[in-house]
Design goal:
Layout (H helix, E strand, L loop, with lengths): L7 H8 L7 H14 L1 H4 L4 H11 L7 H7 L2
């Protein structure tokens, strides 16, 4: 698996399909939003519900990093 580095804007753009990506990069973008807590803090609740679905389906992983960032 490739290692990806995103800005918040890039990850959101990929997840909204505003930026071109393949499925691996899109999954990495979602994982970034989960890890940073952005998925849970974003004003559009679609991000949180989609992130939860991806975690439930095993496509992404919920980590302690998300909890740490949530408290910031």
């Amino acid at each position: 698996m490739n290692e990806y580095h995103f800005t918040e804007a890039e990850a959101v753009g990929i997840c909204l399909h505003l930026l071109m990506s393949d499925i691996e990069e899109e999954t990495a973008a979602w994982q970034y939003l989960i890890d940073t807590g952005i998925a849970w803090r974003h004003p559009d609740k679609w991000f949180a519900s989609t992130a939860k679905r991806l975690i439930d389906e095993g496509e992404c992983t919920y980590t302690d990093r998300a909890d740490e960032r949530r408290q910031l």
